[in-house]
């Protein structure tokens, strides 16, 4: 069964909480400590988690909630921005290629519905599974960001990836 993206519904909010406010749901590389358990609800009530500066879409496989993708505006120059994306899958959906599929779908969605030329994603240098998923989704590894992220009481190195609009396959070519 294929992975799809869809807008977040009100009854999805507890699932988002499980993936962001529970150490087991978030996983090693996404657990940043407990936070306001109502933040997703407030944002959902404000704009359905889909705003001009970013958003969240649910990753589903049929009727099953598999995770979510997110994007936010990253200012790159005074004249423009790119999207920075993220992904969290529920533990029972990890390691099966769903992250790669979800990232491909999000790239297509963002290029189809915005004028940005660049989408970027970062992950910790020890998150080899996410690096593989990004590379399989067509992202290019740009380099190591030393001491870029704070998690679990210390600073961690990260890896930055990008996907440019010009990296999309040409639909005119066989």
TrEMBL record:
GO molecular function: protein N-terminal-serine acetyltransferase activity; protein-N-terminal-alanine acetyltransferase activity
Domain of life: Bacteria
Coiled-coil region(s): none
GO cellular component entries: cytoplasm
Family annotation (InterPro entries): Acyl_CoA_acyltransferase (IPR016181), GNAT_dom (IPR000182), Ribosomal_N-acetyltransferase (IPR051908)
Pfam families for the chain: Acetyltransf_3
Alphabetical list of Gene3D superfamilies matching this protein: 3.40.630.30
Domain N-acetyltransferase: 3-166
Protein name according to UniProt: Alanine acetyltransferase
Phylogenetic lineage: Bacteria, Bacillati, Actinomycetota, Actinomycetes, Streptosporangiales
């Amino acid at each position: 069964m294929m992975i799809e993206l869809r807008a977040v519904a009100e009854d999805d909010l507890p699932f988002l909480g499980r993936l962001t406010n529970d150490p087991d749901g978030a996983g090693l590389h996404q657990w940043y400590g407990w936070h306001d358990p109502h933040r997703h609800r407030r944002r959902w009530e404000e704009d359905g988690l889909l705003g001009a500066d970013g958003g969240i879409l649910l990753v589903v496989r049929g009727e099953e909630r598999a995770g979510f993708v997110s994007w936010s505006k990253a200012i790159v120059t005074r004249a423009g921005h790119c999207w920075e994306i993220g992904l969290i899958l529920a533990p029972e959906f990890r390691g099966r290629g769903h992250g790669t599929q979800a990232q491909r779908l999000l790239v297509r969605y963002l290029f189809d519905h915005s004028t940005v030329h660049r989408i970027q994603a970062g992950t910790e240098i020890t998150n080899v599974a996410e690096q593989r998923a990004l590379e399989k989704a067509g992202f290019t590894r740009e380099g190591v960001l030393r001491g870029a992220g704070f998690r679990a009481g210390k600073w961690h190195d990260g890896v930055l990836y990008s996907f440019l609009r010009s990296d999309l396959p040409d639909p005119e070519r066989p």
